[in-house]
Design a protein that fits this description.
alpha/beta; Rossmann fold; 2 domains; 8 helices; binds nicotinamide-adenine-dinucleotide
Length: 268
């Protein structure tokens, strides 16, 4: 059953990785997809969805620039009439220890991971409030409430993803009487090209082996796929989730449940 037929969805950061997976899943459930990304390759990602029979349109956007966000969302609204679903997924996760961090690093990370989300939500809310309908899904992370690695370097990222949770709850309360649902997702380790370097080898065939090996640290014996996250977004963006707002949902194959590590794990 195509639960999102007739809905218009925007996914930021959807040229690759988790955002592309979310876009593929939403399109397969009938939504018209606006893929928004700073990279030119967003066009190829949209083209691949169209080849699979989905409705997908590519938009170049830099979420750090207010004028760019306003102009791009104005164009989407002109092209498709409205936005029903916004997925604030664009984000970066470079690691740097606090004592080695300059202001530029910190500002850029917050400009993308936090302020970008404010800008995109602000662009779609007036229409959603007027129509008394809207679904906003924000990408947080288990790194925020938790810390991904004892190796350090996650003060900026962790605090940006904790900010996503605070934003989600405050906006959910601010918009509940307009029947707008605002929720956030906290993924654990998800297979994505940007994560290759920090979770193992980046070279050739070694990548797959390194990613598989990394997955054995997780109780469910693998990293998540972008489609795993996409399926959760699909639910949150549908009317089945119409009484769910202000929630933070962990999707991590059981990884943050463990106090004692008994891995590496393998399927039984
Ligand atoms: N991969 C994981 O394990 C994981 C875990 C938890 C949370 N997350 C979060 O999920 C989201 C996606 O992560 P990913 O692993 O797919 O990363 P990714 O690097 O593969 O994808 C991020 C996308 O955001 C885009 N982007 C970056 N800066 C932008 C800007 N200024 N304007 C518009 N687009 C911009 C990039 O071009 C890229 O396509 C991020 O918010 C990340 O923090 C990822």
């Amino acid at each position: 059953m195509k639960r999102l037929e007739g809905k218009v969805a925007v996914v930021t950061g959807s040229a690759q990785g988790i955002g592309a997976g979310i876009a593929r899943v939403l399109a397969s459930h009938g939504a018209t997809l606006c893929l928004a990304d700073i990279q030119e390759s967003v066009e190829q990602t949209a083209e691949a969805i169209r080849k699979d029979g989905g409705k997908a349109f590519a938009y170049r956007i830099d979420v750090t620039k207010s004028a760019d966000v306003e102009a791009t969302f104005a164009k989407m609204l002109k092209d498709h009439g409205r936005v029903d679903i916004l997925v604030n997924n664009a984000g970066i996760y470079p690691r740097r220890k606090l004592v080695e961090m300059d202001e530029e690093f910190l500002h850029r990370l917050f400009e993308i991971n936090v302020f970008g989300m404010f800008r995109c939500a602000k662009a779609v809310l007036p229409g959603m409030m007027e129509r008394r309908y809207g679904k906003i899904v924000n990408m947080s992370s288990v790194t925020g409430p938790m810390v991904g690695t004892p190796a350090g370097g996650q003060t900026a990222y962790g605090s940006s993803k904790a900010a996503v949770i605070g934003f989600t709850k405050a906006l959910a309360l601010e918009t509940a009487q307009y029947m707008i649902n605002v929720n956030c997702i906290l993924p654990g380790y998800v297979y994505s090209p940007s994560a290759f370097g920090i979770r193992g080898s980046t070279s050739g065939a070694d990548v797959e082996a390194a990613m598989r090996e990394f997955g054995r640290k997780i109780p469910m014996c693998r990293q998540g796929s972008p489609e795993d996250v996409g399926n959760l977004v699909r639910f949150l963006a549908s009317d089945e989730a119409s009484y769910l707002t202000g929630s933070e949902i962990v999707i991590d194959g059981g990884n943050i449940l463990q106090e004692e590590f008994l891995g590496p794990y393998s399927p039984k």
